[in-house]
Design goal:
This protein has about 290 residues and is of the alpha+beta class. It has helices spanning about 35-45, 75-85, 130-135, 140-145, 175-185, 225-235; strands at about 5-10, 20-25, 50, 60-65, 70, 95-100, 100-110, 115, 120-125, 150-155, 160-165, 190-195, 205-210, 215-220, 245-250, 255-265, 270-275, 280-289. It starts with a strand and ends with a strand.
Length: about 290
């Protein structure tokens, strides 16, 4: 039997409140995939990050939900590097992590603010409002009124980005069975809905994320989907927003999170995607595998 310590960390917190919890296991080099899954299930959060050594870059990270491994997870990356920072394993500076989504840069700024590079966006297709209506319980005519597409975008994980008019975000009622089947059929992780905020609110958009296929009915902060949403807004609302975005998530769960995103682009192409935030460790869990 192996005794493993998992740090319990809230990511994308606001003044150490809110956020999305993740497990973090350091020194995970000797753990098998099955052992990682058992640990992730014991922790019970949407994702747990496992940090290992790497011969070529600074760290190798793997990410497990309670049902299996995923290629990347933004909030678990933030949790992992915040833990490394607060344990004194790393200091302020730039690091490279190896993930199944590729080699990605992570910057640790003063006071432990973490900024993560994400993969460049892949635009993987659109779905009509009638299809989306059945998934989230919002009438298709309401969805059509945004005049924006429902588009699958990946900056590490493929999420379906769904715009809803202001005032409708909290009215979403997800059909988890339909959404799980839909995501499985189209190789998606989940659905990321958003409503644009008033310009004087200090926020770009409020968001909700649903990934029941991976055992996540809803989560309060989603780093990978936030990068995808920033690319979506850069593509479809060019000129209406700067390259810097501030997203709120988790309001419907009474667990508000704050996520920053930055997109750099030339005339037509996104050349850099970064997502940032802060994290707060709130406990530890001992697990035997």
């Amino acid at each position: 039997m192996k005794n493993v310590e998992a740090y319990l960390v809230n990511s994308f917190t606001v003044n150490e409140t809110g956020g999305n919890p993740a497990g973090v296991v350091l020194h995970a080099d000797d753990l098998t995939r099955q052992e990682k899954l058992i640990i992730a299930q014991a922790v019970g959060y949407s994702e747990t990050a496992f940090v290992s050594q790497d011969n070529e870059v600074d760290f190798a990270l793997s990410f497990f939900t309670v049902t299996g491994e995923v290629d990347f997870c933004g909030h678990a990356t933030l949790a992992a590097f915040s833990t490394l920072y607060h344990k004194g394993i790393v200091t302020e500076g730039q690091y490279i992590q190896r993930t199944k989504a590729g080699l990605l840069n992570v910057t640790i700024a003063p006071q432990g603010h973490i900024v993560m590079a994400q993969a460049l966006p892949e635009y993987l297709g659109e779905f009509n409002p009638e299809t989306i209506s059945a998934l989230i319980g919002i009438d298709k005519t309401v969805l059509e009124s945004t005049q924006l597409p429902n588009e699958v975008i990946s900056t590490g994980l493929p999420d379906l980005i769904v715009p809803v008019p202001h005032g409708y975000l909290d009215k979403i009622q997800v059909n988890e069975t339909l959404l799980s089947d839909f995501c499985k059929a189209h190789d998606l992780v989940g659905l990321h809905a958003f409503e644009l905020c008033e310009k004087d609110s200090g926020l770009t958009a409020s968001c909700r994320n649903f990934a029941p296929l991976f055992g996540i009915p809803e989560e309060s902060a989603t780093g990978s989907a936030s990068g995808a949403l920033a690319c979506y807004l850069t593509k479809h609302c060019r000129g209406e927003h700067s390259n810097d975005f501030i997203f709120e998530q988790g309001r419907a769960m009474n667990c508000v999170s704050r996520i920053t995103a930055t997109v750099e682009s030339d005339d037509q192409t996104v050349i850099k995607v970064r997502v940032g935030g802060e994290a707060h460790t709130f406990g530890m869990q001992s697990i035997s595998v």
